[in-house]
Every structure is written in structure tokens, then in C-alpha cells.
Design brief:
single chain, about 280 residues, alpha/beta, five-stranded parallel sheet, tRNA processing, TRHO_N, tRNA uridine(34) hydroxylase
Length: about 280
């Protein structure tokens, strides 16, 4: 049965997040929702799935808090269950950069609507950076984008420090899955002296939903952190599966490979197993 998937986040001071965790979890369970919501003093970050009415009820429940009244979200339909259970977790950060002094609620880069993104990244004077991790980039990305070669978002500050120069890289355009990593990445870069920093509003998911296939500059599929593994243009369920052994996303070609037919290992980790 089809389910509605909603993703959302907001950087906002939530000093009482520990007190709100249990009531929020209880409400989600009452609505029959599944997914994960992260709470921290810096804000909220969530991905949930369920019936349309349950999802919309939760969003209304969250927006009843005046601090979240303008909480933006993105929706898509899936034909499989993307989550096993409902979790509400307390975290130090809703997306982990490891630099608590970076505060996106104080400053971020310039938002670029999906409809304006193609023109920006086609400008040869703009350096386009994929803020995601390398294994995500392997599933799909925009042409001309740079891969920071990171295994986690915590490594992004080192990439900025060692590979980028505010005097040389005058215009930066960044993108990530849903926009949240770019919020922190742009705040970091502004703090380090970069002046023109742009990021895709709503991330890749908003772009795939808003831009027609024939106009899209996206190449491949977009990795997502749930059981769909990846989505395509229109935020439709993609063709990738997850390796049960190493957790690496596996393309259709790799799924038909000899190592993968037992569903235990893929070409990325198969050499480590003795069948």
C-alpha cells in the first residue's frame, strides 16, 4: 500500500527538546507513523512515513509550537514501507558537523530555488560542490560538481580548509539531499570568509520533484537514508538496493552480479567473504 513520506528540518532554539521527546513519540505512535525525528537544542530534523492524514496531523502538531509555525516540509509517495519503526532521538546536533560554534539560525548562504538552479550551476564562474558523502555521490549527482571525498559530514570542514580558498573560489554553489547539510556548510563557509555562497533550497529532493525530466541536469538517482535506498526524477522509488553485508547501495547491474545473487554481499565487499 502506498505511503506518504515527509521530510522536514528547521534550525531554531529548542532548549526544552528533552521534555518534548516523549510526548512527540507518543503522538507519532498514536498516528501509526514510522520514521526518525532528531531533536537538539539547535532544532529539529525528521523523515516520517504513513497515511496522508497521519503525516499531515503530525505536521500540524509540530507547527502548533510557535517556534515551528513556519516549518517547511517536502512530500513524496512510496509503494513500499521505507521505515521499520518510529524513533524520536535527542542529539547534540540535528546534522553532525562537530563545530557547535557554527549556527545556521544566525547566518546561511543564499537560497536558490530549484527553478533557478540550472542557470546557476551552468555558469562557468561558479564552483559547484556536492556536500554529500562519496558513496552517495556514486549513486547520482549534478554534472560539473566537485566531490569533497568525505566519508562523513564531519570531514567537510577539513575539505574547506585544505581545498578551498576565498580569494580564488569567488562563487560557490552547494547541494545535498534535503538541504540541511548545506545550511551548516554555507554557515561554515561564510564564517571562513567566503562571500558568495549559494545552496539549493530544499535540496536534491525538491529539485527532482519540481523540475521536469526533460529539463533536469541531474544524472543518476539520489541516495536516501531509508529502505527506498534511492529515488529518481519526480521522487519516485529508484532501482538501487542495499547490500546486506556492507550497507553499500547496489545498482541494478551490481544486483545481477555473481556475488550478489545470494543477497549477502556485493562487488564492494564480496572479496572479504568466503562463500
Amino acid at each position: 500500500m502506498s505511503q506518504l513520506v515527509a521530510t522536514f528540518y528547521k534550525f531554531v532554539q529548542l532548549a526544552d527538546c528533552a521534555d518534548t521527546r516523549k510526548p512527540l513519540l507518543t503522538y507519532c505512535l498514536e498516528q501509526g507513523l514510522k520514521g526518525t525525528i532528531l531533536l537538539a537544542e539547535e532544532g529539529i530534523n525528521g523523515a516520517i512515513a504513513g497515511s496522508p492524514s497521519a503525516v499531515h496531523n503530525l505536521l500540524a502538531f509540530l507547527r502548533a509550537d510557535l517556534r515551528l509555525a513556519d516549518l517547511a516540509h517536502s512530500e513524496s509517495i512510496t509503494h513500499s514501507s521505507p521505515f521499520d519503526r518510529m524513533k524520536v532521538k535527542l542529539k547534540k546536533e540535528i546534522v553532525t558537523l562537530g563545530m557547535p560554534e557554527i549556527n545556521p539560525s544566525q547566518q546561511v548562504g543564499t537560497y536558490v530555488r530549484p527553478q533557478e538552479w540550472n542557470a546557476l550551476i551552468s555558469d562557468p564562474d561558479v564552483m559547484v560542490i556536492d556536500v554529500r558523502n562519496t558513496f552517495e555521490i556514486g549513486v547520482g549527482t549534478f554534472a560539473r560538481s566537485h566531490d569533497p571525498q568525505t566519508g562523513s559530514f564531519r570531514q567537510f570542514p577539513n575539505y574547506v580548509q585544505t581545498q578551498l580558498d576565498p580569494q580564488h573560489h569567488k562563487k560557490i554553489a552547494m547541494f545535498c539531499t534535503g538541504g540541511i547539510r548545506c545550511e551548516k556548510a554555507s554557515a561554515l563557509m561564510l564564517a571562513q570568509g567566503f562571500e558568495e555562497v549559494y545552496h539549493l533550497q530544499g535540496g536534491i529532493l525538491s529539485y527532482l520533484k519540481a523540475i521536469p525530466r526533460e529539463e533536469s541536469l541531474w544524472q543518476g538517482e539520489c541516495f536516501v537514508f531509508d529502505q527506498r535506498v534511492a529515488v529518481t526524477q519526480g521522487v519516485e522509488d529508484g532501482s538501487y538496493k542495499m547490500c546486506r553485508a556492507c550497507g553499500h547501495p547496489i545498482s541494478q547491474a551490481d544486483q545481477s552480479a555473481e556475488l550478489d545473487h545470494v543477497g549477502r554481499a556485493c562487488s564492494y565487499c564480496g572479496a572479504s567473504f568466503d562463500f
